[in-house]
Amino acid sequence: MDILTVHLFNALLYASVLFLIAGGLSLIYGVMRIVNLAHGNLFAIGAFTTASAVGVWFAGSSSAWLFLLVPIGAVAAAAIGAVVEPTLLRRFYRRPEEYQLLVTFGLLMLLEDLLRFLWGPYPISASVLFEKVGSLHVGEFIYPRYNLLVIATGVLAALFLWAFVYRTKFGVVLRATSQDMRRASALGVNVNLVYVEAFTIGCFMAGLGGAIIAPSQPAVLGMGVDALVLSFIVVVIGGLGSLEGALVGAFIVGVIREIGISLFPEMELAVLYVIAAGVLFVRPAGLFGRTA
Amino acid sequence: MNLLETRALTKYFGDTHAVDRVDFTIGEGEVVALIGSNGAGKTTLVNLISGLVPPDSGRILLRDADVTHQRVHRRIEAGIARSFQIVNLFDELTLLDNVALSVFAREKMTRYFWTLADRHAAVWEEAHAILGQFGLGEKASTLAGGIAQGERKLLDVAVAYALRPRLLFLDEPTSGVSTREKAPIMDVISAIVRSQKITAVVIEHDMDIIFKYSDRIVVMHQGAILASGSPEEIRRNETVKDAVFGPSHA
Amino acid sequence: MSNRPTRRDFLSQLGVTTAAMAVGSVAGAGLAGIAQAQEKPKGTIPDKPFKIGHMTFFTGAGAVLGEPMYKGNVLAAEEINAQGGLLGKRKIEILKADEAAGTDANTKEMRRLKLSEHIDMFMGITSSGNTPALGPVAEELKLLTIFIDGCTDFLFDKAVPNPRYIFRITNIQSADGSTCAVGVAQTWPNIKTYANIHPDYAYGRNCFDHFGIVTKKLLPNAKSVSEAWPKLFSTDFTPHITKTLAAKPELLVTSLWGGDYVAFYKQALQYGLFDKMKVATTLALGSAPQSIGKDHPEGVLTGVHANYYFTYPAGNRWPLNKTFVEKYKARWNEYPNFQAEGAYTATYALKTALEKANKLTGGWPDDDAIISQLEGMMIAGPGGYVYIRPDNHQGYKDAITGFSKNVPEYPFPILDPNRIITIPIRNITAPPGWPKGEPTSTYTWIEQTWPQMKA
Amino acid sequence: MTSAPAAPETRSPLRIVLWAAAIAVVLAVLPWVLDPYQSILIAYGLVMAIAVLGFNLLLGYSGLLSFGHSAYFGVGAYAVAFMVKYLRVESMELFILGAVAASALVTALFGYVCVRYTRIFFSILTLALSQVLWSLAFKFFWVTGGTDGLRVPTPKLLGVGMAEGDDKIRFLTHGYYYYVLAVFIACVAVMWVVVHSPFGKALQAIRDNETRARFVGLRVRAYRFVAFLLSGVFTGIAGALWVPLNGLTTPDILYWPFSGEIVFMAVLGGFRNFTGPIVGAVVFNYLKTYAIGFTVYWQALLGITLMVLVLVLPTGIVGTARLLWARARRRTS
């Protein structure tokens, strides 16, 4: 039974990171009705920033200080979001979706090379934190404590987001804007401000996903593109624009991946995609989806 | 025999009884005006009959055949066509294309992907002729997005008319145009409808137009039919005056 | 070998040796060295640069393994250029191309290099997914090519069964899985269960197959109890590690390499994987040596692609290696890996071939003359003698593997100098003339000719 | 579209045929003039042009942005590779037939789901479904060769193989080039007819105004489905032609950024023109090849190009050229 616990932890670990990425994607879509194809790159930026802050720039500092540095990746991603939304994306809200997708696809290519330009071609890791916190015993197995921290971060982020959206004044404004931008605007909501805030939060989440895994996995080029496909699978299962959907979708994907690798090693990820396709055929809008 | 008959046709939007157990009939060759204040259910009734929205209950019979649950293209085959209150055109196609498309569709030729559209001379001739009937012949090769509102209203009707319907719904064919233009537009439409003996239902607000062009007037109020009769009868009906024009109205 | 020999007998028959021994001397007509004095070339030699297109991983997780290849090529080219160039006249010019662009892009790039940049020769390639794609293209382009790695058996078994323009310098891939299996059989002969984690592409499959067949012969009691096939260039091995732990094997066999292996062992450490089982790898120390940290456990059977490790042969026994490592360290401030050695040797093989061909015909030799010199060449490289078999254009040198050990002299683990295992390559690869087999010729050769040990 | 509707195409058929013939002649002469490398690049460009032409039946004429066309391209390519591997087929004509059948099958399946939606949902659905194929090609190693891909040898063209000892490069730049050119011309002609057929008009009508299209009696989904099918099959044919040119097929061509490139090509040329996708495909091929040769940051270069295009020249090369041409003519007359 201990091994099942370990498997469950693994699934939750994967789900936590995926929720952070896909949740951000879905939040942005929910409020602004745009799908940001460069979203995965913000995840990568989070990972690279944290990896080099912890593993290179401040390497050798006290571990408490290094732990405080972890969220720096999320901040970096959020900062990029805060710049990109008003300067670039804002021009596209009134234009057809194809242009929105295209401009974010261009952004994806640009950011991918920006990573290479800033951090060079090699993987960067910040494994010192991963090693520092050590492992704990789960029956006869041992499990890295750091992974539990990642899971905790994912759960906390979900709770935080829920409280934020459903329990704060800004959340009300956010939901109002999401449902009817014009009416919200007529009621005196500064829609531009809401948009930049929502986009920044979405990017922050993606960046946090990258930042939090940087100590346990190296940051590599191309991780953003891969992450985007997976978060698409999550939102496709859960339903685009729904935070609950992202949460459930991430959990489903985490569990399926763990099962897939254990039971069908030859198929692995393909299991995931085939199940996603199944959901699409039965419920194309996703489990929690709303279409138009 | 009635051309069209609805039986207890009902549609709710939330708590609003948009159309509430309406029995509406129209005879072959009639031109009926559908009037009522905003929100009376006129457009919803047309939407239900034309198939844009499904009814909650009730039936729609076209020459005694039940079309209640038929898809839009089946109703069009059966001869029901409509125009739109807010102009609905193919803005990036020319006027000629807009009309020709209806002809192609009517002749079930739109599935031909292996012949050039230009080769079907008969279709283009007919489309030209229709544009001519509506006085739009000179603008045949202009894009529909680039003509004046009055012309757009006419084109909208022309697109519907090109389907050669037996029953044509005209949803406020003169809304959004200046008072001065209304009569000429209605003259064109009326001439065509009368000459082709098309059964037509016109939703309209302008009383002068209604009294001038319709055989019969049906008054709707809060989702139900309040009265039905000749223009003269309706003019004299006090209930109608109160409900439709408001008590203060002259 | 029909009556079942004991394992120990058979291993000694294979010529498996542990601990450092002198490199066997091989006498032969084709013997050439990299440090020969240069004679004056015959005839007129043009002085336009000799362009080599060099493709390897310059970016991504593959770069720690692949980039040293470029560095070895550059080092040799600089040495040759310092003496005036090839045949004293033609300076070597190297054009870089990034293998990480993907297999499709790589074939396009090879065409571009030849048809648009007009390279004289092509070198490089790390991934064994790429040589079967590029080999036929090189043949189509009539482009003289020495692949440094990308050592899949499939290249000369199937993709290009009768090579003309392409050669390959590092050991054939089946030697990797076989060497690893021989190392396991010799070190841990009582293993009953083993698990696999291999990258999901040609190399991983090949290692899995050959480790399996050799182990079946040598350790008939050993069973594979778990398989995991992570995508190449993955960063998260958590579920694969968990799966392996759940199967409770006595041994884990893995052919992860480069950045993948680094990420893997760091994660595996936190799961205590190395405490629960023996670990045998095919390519762990094949990457640039400094990429593996001192936190790497000791005593792991750490493969080096069955090729070369910079501490062996030790300097006092084989000066060529000593000077190569010194020069490489001076030039790049790091230690070479097997690919650096392969590229360095390949460049000198080219130089040698040119000089011999020139001696025969005078002037600048055409490709055919170079090819006929390369075929059957025996060249002494830093890692020992390399023989280029004329029938399949494949380089052969003794296979080696060893065990990780931390020593004070280096900031990274090295192969334990006292426990290095070497195997003469001819004993673990199909001989010339052996029919092409499935999945590889060597596989069917082992399956059909090796004796079955008693359980 | 934000721009005001431009005047419709009103050139006479004869002039169009003359122009097309002139361009075809130029393309036919190129291999004799250009060095082999350039000819191969043009061949790649023509192949991609077929794919983008197909893609644009959806984007330009039906108003549906597919971000999953890599799937149909890949299906065409893998269909050929499977025919080589399992059926030992060598004939290029059979390859194309096989690719048509396979891509029609897959497109029908995907189309069934996708045409129920429009706009962003359509894009996301096409992308997600295409990635199912990518994962299958990627993981089913023993069938697809995994990331190693499958090799495709020189095919027989019209029953004629490459002569023993013949140069493959010569084969590619002459025999195969003309084969590609012929298929390209056929595809362009077919697509020309499709978009100018009553069916093509119906698609454009649906694109402009779905509601009204329903009320002239068009079964919108059925039309979208057929357009999807045709579009996918065209892209599948391109995939089939691409494999012998490339020599092998790998999952890279099924991965979603390749779909992004197809979209890029259409936008680069201008998706509101018939010729836009063709120009876009050929130019993109050059752009990418030379960007890669020019800088390691070629992706950034392409990304910026795309963003500038979308911001400044949303009508693409052909649209912009037409605009400038019209302006110049107005000034002179």
Task: Please supply descriptive tags for the structure shown above.
heterotetramer, A: 292 residues, mainly alpha, 2 strands, D: mainly alpha, ABC transporter involved in vitamin B12 uptake, BtuC, two-stranded antiparallel sheet, 1% strand, globular, disordered N terminus
Total helical elements of chain A: 13
Distance between the termini of chain B: 38 Å
What oligomeric state is this?
heterotetramer
Structural class assignment of chain A = mainly alpha
Low-confidence runs of at least 5 consecutive residues of chain A:
none
Q: Mean pLDDT of chain B, rounded to whole units?
A: 89
Radius of gyration of chain B: 18 Å
Describe, in short, the structure shown.
The complex is a heterotetramer of chains A (292), B (250), C (455) and D (333). By secondary structure, chain C is of the alpha/beta class.
What would you say this structure looks like, in words?
The complex is a heterotetramer of chains A (292), B (250), C (455) and D (333). Chain A is 74% helix and 3% strand. Chain A has helices at residues 2-32, 39-57, 63-69, 72-87, 97-119, 127-132, 145-167, 169-179, 181-186, 191-213, 223-238, 243-263, 269-282; strands at residues 135-138, 141-144. In chain A, strands 1-2 form a two-stranded antiparallel sheet. In chain B, the strands form two sheets. Chain B has a six-stranded mixed β-sheet, sandwiched between helices. In chain B, strands 1, 2, 3, 5 and 6 form a five-stranded antiparallel β-sheet that branches. The model of chain B has no long low-confidence stretch (mean pLDDT 89). With 455 residues, chain C is of the alpha/beta class. Chain C has 14 helices and 18 strands. Chain C starts with 6 loop residues before the first helix and ends in a 6-residue tail after the last helix. Mean pLDDT of chain C is 89; it is low at 20-31. In chain D, helix 2 (36-62) packs across helix 12 and helix 11 packs across helix 12 (276-294). Chain D has helices at 13-33, 36-62, 70-87, 92-114, 119-139, 141-144, 168-195, 198-208, 210-214, 220-246, 256-269, 276-294, 298-312, 316-332, and strands spanning 150-151, 248-249. With 333 residues, chain D is an all-alpha fold. The two termini of chain D are 29 Å apart. Mean pLDDT of chain D is 89; it is low at 1-10. The radius of gyration of chain D is 20 Å and the shape is globular. Helix content of chain D is 75%, strand content 1%. The C-D interface holds C 98, 101-105, 107-109, 111-112, 115-116, 128-129, 132-133, 136-137, 139-142, 159, 200-202, 205, 229, 231-232 and D 35-37, 40, 138-139, 141, 146-149, 151, 167-169, 246-250, 252-253, 289, 292-293, 296.
